[in-house]
Design goal:
With about 160 residues, the protein is an alpha+beta fold. The protein contains 4 helices and 5 strands; from the N terminus they run H-H-H-H-E-E-E-E-E. The strands form 2 sheets. A 3-stranded antiparallel sheet has the order 1-2-3. Helix 1 packs parallel to helix 3 (about 55-80).
Length: about 160
Amino acid sequence: MRISTSIPKDKTRNFIAKLTKELSSNYSKSKIDMVEFINRKLKGWSHFYQFTDNTAMVYNKVDRAVFWKLGHWLARKYRCSMKSIMRKWCKHPEAGKAKTWVLFGRTDNGNLCGASLFRLVSSTKRPFRFRLPECNPYLRDDDRKTVTSKYGDVAMAVSHC
């Protein structure tokens, strides 16, 4: 029995493909609603994989793909260049945070609000613990073994976006 504590490559590839498909169409949706939809997907995915190791590289890959695909979606929706889109909406959401898309506007309901794209590299990471079941009653020398993740602290990744 082998315990896998990392995110499978095919799951990452499929997740990026789903988000890319969503961001390759649907230009009638408001920018705020699109960012909130993407944020829900990203947060759900990060909560599902919060107990895995070596997530920094995978999260960085997904963040980079979503960041640039959303930028191209915005440029195509508003029919302008990436340079002007980057100047207008790519900002630091808070002091000390990585650059991301910070958008203000109206939702499809007509409400005025703002939203920023969620970054996976800033999501929480919890230590992985797996413990074998209680000792076998038919064996006298059976000990419980605990497998613990290599990283006890939260891994922080620095983004260059």
